[in-house]
Amino acid sequence: MILTPEGERPVEVLRPGDAVVTASGETVAVAWVGHRHLDLRRHPQPERAQPVRVAAHAFGPGLPHRDLVVSPGHALFVEDVLIPAGVLVNGTSVVQLDRSEVVYHHVELAVHDVLVADGLPAESYLDCGNRGTFENHDGPVTLHPDLVASALNLELACAPVVLHGPVVDRVRARLAAKAEVEAEVKAGRSVLARLLRRA
């Protein structure tokens, strides 16, 4: 769900000209929405295209407010940088899913920016020479797209794109600590529920 002036709307219904709200609160028009259905059973390297699920509240309350599923190269805006979701996979709060099929949608704006997807700041589409990933563009479609973060055209990104280093390490540590606390809370609730049933 993408934040718009009228509230959240499914990305699948957005069209060029529709208004969306950026993470900075600015209202801008959608330039294009790419979409692609992938049969990952036929992909020679499915792990490079398998979706990544960011669990609800992984980054804090409401961040995101429901599970968010994106491609591994789709960057999230954290600590004023863009970090591809695949870089943050930790096996608990951020996991790469094993799907036989997936449909991706990506919203392009006139200028690369940060949208709000399910409450979490995430990048708009940045053309890194990969428009052929989408079946609705005006050219040949890439048969087996590689959706892991690309280093092309990163100078056009609205914020630094970070794949490794201290910021990524810090964000990964924060995600791990939050996931550990969540696991302890769930375990405590489970123990309490068992005790209450016995009483």
Automatic annotation (TrEMBL):
Origin, by domain of life?
Answer: Bacteria
Q: Where is the Hedgehog/Intein (Hint) domain?
A: 1-128
Provide the protein name: Hedgehog/Intein (Hint) domain-containing protein
Q: What lineage does the source organism belong to?
A: Bacteria, Pseudomonadati, Pseudomonadota, Alphaproteobacteria, Hyphomicrobiales
